[in-house]
Design a protein that fits this description.
The complex is a heterotrimer of chains A (104), B (827) and C (205). With 827 residues, chain B is mainly α. Chain B has 25 helices and four strands. The chains are: A mainly alpha (104), B mainly alpha (827), C alpha+beta (205).
Chain lengths: 104, 827, 205
């Protein structure tokens, strides 16, 4: 089970972060935007900050996979590819955050 | 024991009942796999005929072939049947039939569940088909957008057929998914570690996990829409705090992964068949496994790309545009790995290979148009036009029908033990291929010229007449091609010319059984040391028949197989299967009564049906287990393992764990829906909030915190051979307390018909309550089983299963109480 | 009705996007077909597996596909951002869909009443249409002017359209809306400045 989780974990984190940041952006542009304001976050900054944090965690997962290799060479190889894929996806799928940050 | 004597002995243990009765009592994966495939291809025919009627109607302008109302039923049912009654069940059939043979074992993890799943599919499908026969078929398009599908604009029973029938059919998908996950992870031949699994098993494993997480959002959406239609709970009505966009989110949260749920198993066929046709091995096995996993996850981050025109802020849409282009990368990795495989070997142009070439050409076009519609501005133009219809057919026909035909032709010699007699298949392929491209290439152009999808006719001066006629004629050529292929396959089934074993020279284990395979698959289970055991040991079939593997000496009349460690494939336990029974079909029938009572609105019958289903479930579980410890079992090759029921995690534990994954996705979708309505839906805040009750929250959460502790005490006492009834009863008490708090929440919530807020609280409370009741029944069951001697320190699995459900219910119950009360407390 | 016959900047940008993507797609399809066909040719020596993996999986699968997709995505997002960017000095009109038809409303005082199934706009000017619906979901689509956007109950979506020249442009509801869907159409009439003023003051029906 642990081997399977090792393969699934990096992309699972990408999916969670991607959905969460999409949700955060939706929230920032919705009538509940004052909820974010309550935490001292502006609509443009919150998703961007969350993205930075997510990239850091995603990289940390990759480092962990490198530092504590799986017993099986095959599982290790597949999980590393998954880890790099997830980091790539994290950068690629959320890069529109850099281009504009409006609600238009 | 000679090979023949062993064969007779195993046949006596494993064979299904003879004749007609055997259909209803069989639990064999070979029988049920074939039944799934036959039924799904029957529906392929039905939906194909509907498609021909659609093309006949559109062949000329102002055709009077079908009225507008009939036409709406045609296109809705064509899509619905192809997706839910053909594609998914065909995959399940293939997987159910092939997986145990490929993994070198004798059956799937839960034979009775396979049968139950099949019968739910058969009855649910019959329900859908009857709507078509009665002229009351669903008519809102296969994605059923409210408000058009809501009670106000679609008051008839048509939409109910869809919501209730599809939910019924989806039970079978969930059953098959749980079962395939557990089978692939735990039921393999000894020695088959994860990296030695046939690549097809990886595809099916990932697909099954995707079904578990992809279907629950649609099941939730269907339940909410049916609640709105039947009882006026306004989840999708903008003027009462609902939002029709919520349906679109839930539907496409399912709908996009669905495309990959259909494509991945087909890709699994390609990854299996291409190397064999090219007389080599697959290029980049590890890369392909990684790209399957990547594809599975990425496909869950794409759902909004079906909603580019709904006015979501451009940046939100841009995320999904980026993710949608990204998903093309692992697909490209696979396509180029297949081409590389062909470069590595020497491909032969035999019939399965023809379909594979058909796949390459068609699917690459579908992929390219897919990238086009992932680009947001282009999608604004072609969304809801014939261009999209053309694109999705390129993806599904190219990515599913061609591969599945390649697979059917590839594995038919295994299923029948015969070889093809008349060579109709080649001409059938040419007609299908030409007809397909004639139809759908033309439809791209129609879309660009502005023809909307789902219109029942068009004006002669629109400039679409000639192209539509070409598409219609080509579609009939394609239909003739597919009919020829069907005739070819039927002739193959009935005109027996014995073929040789393993005609393609494949190396995987399914070819190492007899053709057709016997009921027990393998007389003894092989020990695996490579990815292609049959290539390495050409004498494998006779070795296994002589009983040189594991479990070569059947004990009593037990149906035996082995459970293994997930990563290494080391034998862990001896699993004993139940034998033939009509319990699954009877339970599916009462499940059908439950759905029928909802469809026909005979609500007095519903509670009785629920009780009947619960009674069957208890009987089902009761028949497992033993009252004495059997101790270690000899499995051959000088190895001993315990019985599966004498391990810490019996088969039921694994099944529960995967079912809870699906369940958690369902609950997650519900919480998403609540948050979505709260932040996006017009018509909020609600006129009345729930009044905060500290008592309800404190008692409920207190009980939810105590329950996991108490069940652990019970588990520990079982393991120490001490009486555990009091601790189990105490756990039951805390679960009852949690249930009381949830009932109080439901009763105190604002009226569910006046605002979506009250309706959502009702559903949240009911979800928690349902789990509390379910877990309560399980705990009562475990207590009775303890008193009857079914539980011991060795046989501790049932309390362990109860612990999983107690933990889940405690967590879900706590969340229900919190999300209901915190907003109420804040305002 | 053809999106390949654009009559305004938004539709023209998208048509250009289409021609670029079509060209690229045809080239890629040809490449894949040729590569597949070449695998059938007779070869003397057995190729090296590690090298094949590098060429096909890293080179073609990852490198080639990501390069193409990244370029296309950047182009697409830039186009999308341009088409959704707020415009200055736009004429603002409203569109309300229903199962009975479209109702359009105009700026200014009561002199100009609403119109049914015909939207009047000034030619050569940006027009922002605010779109909603009274009943089920519809979609506002004038293929020669711009992409479509849905009319969703309880929400107001906006779309910027602009017709270069005066003339009549066909529009349709492009989200299936039950019986009568075929005939849920409307017209956009782009007027020259004089006619537009006349229209606004109510002198033209």
């Amino acid at each position: 089970m642990r081997d399977l989780l090792r393969i699934l974990a990096p992309l699972l984190f990408w999916l969670a972060a991607f959905s969460a940041i999409y949700g955060l952006h939706g929230l920032a542009c919705s009538r509940q935007s004052d909820v974010l304001g309550g935490f001292g976050l502006s609509a443009a900054a919150a998703p961007l900050a969350a993205w930075g944090m997510a990239i850091a965690i995603q990289s940390a997962i990759l480092v962990m996979l490198h530092l504590r290799p799986a017993a099986s060479a095959f599982v290790q190889r597949v999980s590393l590819v998954a880890g790099w894929t997830a980091l790539g996806a994290m950068l690629w799928s959320l890069f529109p955050l850099l281009l504009n940050s409006g609600c238009a | 024991m000679t090979a023949l004597k062993r064969h007779r002995r195993l046949e006596a243990i494993w064979a299904s009942e003879k004749g007609f009765r055997g259909w209803f009592s069989t639990v064999s994966h070979s029988d049920l796999g074939r039944m799934f495939l036959f039924t799904s291809f029957f529906y392929f025919g039905v939906a194909g005929i509907l498609a021909m009627l659609i093309r006949a109607q559109l062949a000329t302008p102002h055709s009077a072939w079908a009225s507008e109302e009939v036409y709406a039923q045609l296109f809705t049912m064509h899509g619905t049947i192809m997706m839910f009654l053909f594609a998914i069940p065909a995959i399940e059939g293939m997987a159910v039939y092939l997986i145990p043979k490929m993994l070198g074992t004798r059956d799937l993890a839960y034979p009775r569940l396979t049968a139950y799943g099949f019968w739910c599919y058969a009855f649910g499908g019959a329900m859908m088909l009857s709507s078509l026969a009665l002229g009351l078929a669903p008519d809102g398009g296969w994605f059923m957008y409210p408000p058009l599908s809501g009670g106000i604009h679609a008051p008839g029973i048509n939409t109910d057929f869809w919501l209730i029938g599809i939910t019924f059919v989806e039970i079978s998908a969930i059953c098959a998914a749980v079962e395939l996950c557990v089978s692939i992870l735990k039921y393999r031949a000894p020695g088959m570690s994860l990296d030695k699994m046939p690549i097809f098993a990886w595809y099916i494993l990932v697909t099954a996990l995707m079904i578990l997480t992809g279907f629950p959002p649609l099941i939730l959406g269907s339940i909410l829409l049916e609640l709105e239609r039947a009882f006026g709970l306004p989840f999708f009505q903008a003027d009462l705090g609902g939002d029709s966009l919520l349906w679109q989110h839930l539907f496409w949260l399912f709908g996009h992964p669905e495309v990959y749920i259909i494509f991945l198993p087909a890709a699994g066929i390609l990854s299996t068949v291409i190397p064999v046709m090219a007389r080599t091995t697959l290029l980049g096995y590890g890369w392909i496994v990684a790209s399957i996993v990547a594809l599975a996850f990425l496909s869950f981050g794409l759902w909004v790309h079906h909603m580019f025109t709904t006015g979501i802020p451009h940046m939100g849409v841009a995320f999904f545009s980026a993710a949608s282009t990204l998903v093309a990368v692992p697909t490209a990795v696979q396509v180029f790995a297949w081409i590389g495989t062909m470069w590595k070997g020497r491909p032969d142009l035999r019939l399965p290979m023809l379909h594979i070439l058909g796949f390459f050409f068609t699917f690459v076009i579908g992929g390219l148009t897919g990238v086009m519609v992932a680009i947001v501005p282009f999608d604004w133009q072609v969304h809801d036009t014939a261009f999209i219809t053309a694109h999705l057919h390129y993806v599904l026909f190219g990515g599913f029908v061609f591969p599945i035909l390649a697979g059917v032709y590839y594995w038919l010699p295994l299923v029948t033990g015969c070889r093809r007699f008349f060579k109709l298949g080649e001409s059938a392929f040419v007609l299908t291929f030409l007809g397909f491209h004639g139809t759908f290439l033309a439809m791209h152009v129609l879309g660009l010229l502005g023809q909307r999808r789902r219109i029942h006719t068009y004006d002669a001066d629109a400039g679409w007449t000639a192209i539509n006629l070409i598409a219609s004629i080509a579609s009939f050529i394609m239909a003739i091609g597919l009919a020829l292929a069907l005739i070819d396959i039927i002739i193959h089934l009935f005109v027996a010319v014995r073929g040789k074993r393993s005609p393609w020279g494949a190396g995987t284990l399914e070819w190492a059984t007899m053709s057709p395979p016997p009921s027990y698959n393998f007389a003894s289970l092989p020990h695996i040391t490579s990815r292609e055991p049959y290539s390495d040991t050409p004498t494998l079939p006779s070795d296994l028949a002589r009983g040189t593997g594991y479990l070569g000496d059947p004990q009593g009349d037990r149906r035996e197989t082995l459970m293994v460690d997930i990563a290494s494939g080391r034998p862990e336990a001896l699993a004993v299967y139940p034998s033939n029974t009509t319990l699954p079909i009877r339970m599916a029938a009462v499940t059908g009564v439950f759905f029928l009572s909802l469809l026909l609105k005979v609500y007095w019958l519903t509670p009785f049906a629920v009780i009947a289903v619960a009674a069957f479930a208890v009987r089902w579980a009761w028949s497992l287990g033993a009252t004495r410890d059997a101790g270690p079992q000899l499995i051959g090759r000088d190895m001993q393992v315990p019985l599966a029921i004498e391990t810490e995690k019996p088969p039921g534990w694994w099944g529960s764990a995967f079912l809870l994954v699906a369940n958690a996705t369902f609950f997650g979708s519900l919480l998403f829906g609540y948050a979505f309505l709260w932040s996006i839906a017009p018509g909020w805040p609600p006129p009345e909030w729930l009044t905060f009750s500290i008592l309800e929250v404190a008692i409920g959460i207190g009980a939810a915190l105590a329950a996991p502790v108490l069940i652990r005490v019970a588990n520990a006492r079982v393991n120490a051979s001490r009486p555990a009834t009091p601790a189990s009863a105490a756990t039951l008490g805390t679960i009852v307390l949690l249930a009381v708090c949830l009932v109080s929440l439901i009763l105190r919530a604002p009226s569910p018909t006046e605002h979506a807020y009250g309706a959502t609280l009702l559903v949240l409370g009911s979800y928690g309550l349902f789990h509390a009741v379910l877990t309560g029944i399980m705990l009562a069951f475990v207590i009775v089983r303890m008193r009857r001697g079914y539980v011991s320190a060795a046989r501790s699995g049932e309390p362990a299963i109860a612990r999983l459900w107690v933990d889940y219910t405690a967590g879900a119950g706590t969340l229900c109480l919190l999300v209901a009360h915190v907003p109420a407390w804040l305002t | 009705m053809s999106i390949l016959d654009p009559a305004g900047p938004a539709a023209r940008d998208i048509a250009a996007l289409w021609w670029v993507m079509l060209t690229g797609s045809v080239l890629i399809l040809a490449l894949v077909t040729v590569l597949t066909a070449l695998s059938f040719r007779k070869r003397a020596q057995v190729p090296d597996e590690a090298r094949l993996e590098r060429t096909w999986i890293l080179g073609m699968g990852l490198g080639f596909s990501m390069a193409v997709l990244a370029a296309l995505l950047a182009y697409g997002i830039a186009t999308g951002a341009r088409l959704t960017a707020p415009v200055a000095d736009a004429v603002e009109v409203t569109a309300e869909a229903s199962l009975e038809g479209w109702t359009f409303g105009y700026p200014g005082d009561a002199a100009r009443g609403q119109t049914a199934d015909v939207l009047h706009i000034p030619a050569g000017q940006d027009v922002v249409v605010s779109i909603t619906t009274r009943d089920v979901i519809h979609s506002f689509w004038v293929p020669r002017l711009a992409g479509k956007i849905d009319a969703i109950p309880g929400h107001v979506n906006t779309l910027t359209i602009r017709a270069d020249l005066p003339g009549t442009y066909q529009g349709v509801s492009a989200e299936y809306s039950g019986p009568g869907y075929l005939d849920r159409r409307f017209e956009v009439r782009a007027l020259d400045p004089a006619d537009w003023q006349a229209f606004l003051s109510g002198e033209m029906p």
